[in-house]
Amino acid sequence: MMFKTFFEDKFKREHSRLRRIIEFFEDQENKIPESVMKLMAHIMNAQHIWLCHLKSIPAESDFWDLPPLHFFHRLNNQNLTETLDYLEKEVLLNTIQTNPYEEEQQKRIMDVLHYMLEHAAYHRGQVALNLKIHNLQPPELQMMTFD
Question: With b meaning 16 or more CB within 10 Å and e meaning fewer, what string describes 87-112?
Fold first, then answer.
């Protein structure tokens, strides 16, 4: 139960961070370079694809698909809903085949979930850096501050 609570909190925070970036994109729509939009879409597409892999169902998108901006909120919300639903049903210490070509490539479900969060953080950093390169100040995403 401790792991589920941990991951529920982390995925809710990730959803909130992505929502704030999406809202920023909507406010600055004509100024956001396509490359930055693609990075943002990649974060959400990858989460969808990994979740589908965990659930053993086909994904509806590819890693680098670029949906229209108005679809970003729906994809972000859908990812959160489906991730929380998955967390309720699965034993996170169970393993899953992560590479269909290598039988030895087994990972714990919780490790895959952790990777999903790391992947998102990595690319959020790229989004922020690219916005700054294009003279756009990214939204504040720190969930913890130190006085």
Answer: beebebeeebebeeeeeeeeebbbeb
What are the phi and psi torsion angles at 57 (to 5°)? Answer: -130, 155
Q: How far is CA 67 from each of CA 33, 38, 78, 118, 121, rounded to the nearest angstrom? A: 14, 9, 14, 23, 20
Q: Mind listing the pLDDT tens digit for each residue in 66-122?
A: 999 999 999 999 999 999 999 988 777 777 776 656 666 778 888 899 999 999 999
Q: Could you tell me how many helices (H) and strands (E) the chain has, helices first? A: 4, 2
> Whole-model pTM?
0.88
The CATH class, in words, for 2-133 is mainly alpha
Domain ranges across the chain: 2-133
User: 85 with 4: CB under 8 angstroms?
Assistant: no
